[in-house]
Amino acid sequence: MSGVWVFKNGVVRLVENVGGEQGAVGRRKVLVHVPTSEVITSYDVLEEKLAGLGWERYPSTPDLIQFHKRSSVHLISVPTDFSKFRSVHMYDIVVKSRNIFEVRDA
């Protein structure tokens, strides 16, 4: 993970590739389901993989899709528009479901 975490107005976000390796700027990231080596290409695919791990869709706002796992306090939030799915959302999923997903350079 290259970049810098920035705290502004009470929100923490990842600014990618700040001072990263040469040629790293603009690299696209993808979320990969490790057991199948499948790249997550839509929320339908993501929801299927998360459901298999016990995550359930959680009622949310019109601009967010959220998933909750009954056995934990974790909540995964992603924008409803998959084109706005960024690495910060991917890393959130990786942290909350260890050893199942990875973020890789495309």
Strand order of the largest sheet: 4-3-8
Distance between the termini: 13 Å
Q: Note the main sheet.
A: 3 strands, antiparallel
Q: How would you sum up the global shape? A: globular
Count the beta strands. Answer: 8
Low-confidence segments = none
- Helix content range: 10-25%
SSE ordering: EEEEHEEEHE
The percentage of residues in β strands lies in 35-45%
* Secondary-structure content class: alpha+beta
Describe the structure.
This protein is α+β, with helices and mostly antiparallel strands. It has 2 helices and 8 strands. The strands form 3 sheets. The protein has a 3-stranded antiparallel beta sheet with strand order 4-3-8, with helices on one face. It is globular, with a radius of gyration of 14 Å.
Write the topology of this structure.
Elements: E1 3-8, E2 11-16, E3 29-33, E4 38-39, H1 43-51, E5 55-58, E6 64-69, E7 75-79, H2 87-96, E8 101-105
Quick structural gist:
The protein is an alpha+beta fold and 106 residues long. The chain contains two helices and eight strands. The protein has helices at residues 43-51, 87-96, and strands spanning 3-8, 11-16, 29-33, 38-39, 55-58, 64-69, 75-79, 101-105.
What are the main properties of this structure?
alpha+beta; three-stranded antiparallel sheet; 106 residues
